[in-house]
Amino acid sequence: MDPSTIGVLGTIAECIAGEEFDLSSEPSRQILATSGYISYKALKRGSVPCSRRGASYYNCRPGAEGNPYSHGC
């Protein structure tokens, strides 16, 4: 692959490979900007939002579905 086009044709991982992951860098800001949001519970240091394996962070009840929405064609 031509090194001059890796930023255009490569994946995000390829673009930032070999670079220190600096939150002030442009790729880092782009990655952070594309995510929706993080809940306040998830931001608490050292805490696990939902300890139930496979459960949604926002619906952490026994038997709750991880993705309760159905998408039609």
From TrEMBL:
Please provide the record's keywords in A-Z order.
Disulfide bond, Hormone, Signal
Q: Which GO terms describe its biological process?
A: calcium-mediated signaling
Q: Which domain of life is it from?
A: Eukaryota
Citing just one GO molecular function, the answer is:
hormone activity
Single GO cellular component term: plasmodesma
Q: Does the keyword Transport apply?
A: no
UniProt keyword annotation of tRNA-binding present: no
Q: Which residues cross the membrane?
A: none
Family assignment?
Belongs to the plant rapid alkalinization factor (RALF) family.
Name this polypeptide is given: Protein RALF-like 33
This protein's species is: Dendrobium chrysotoxum
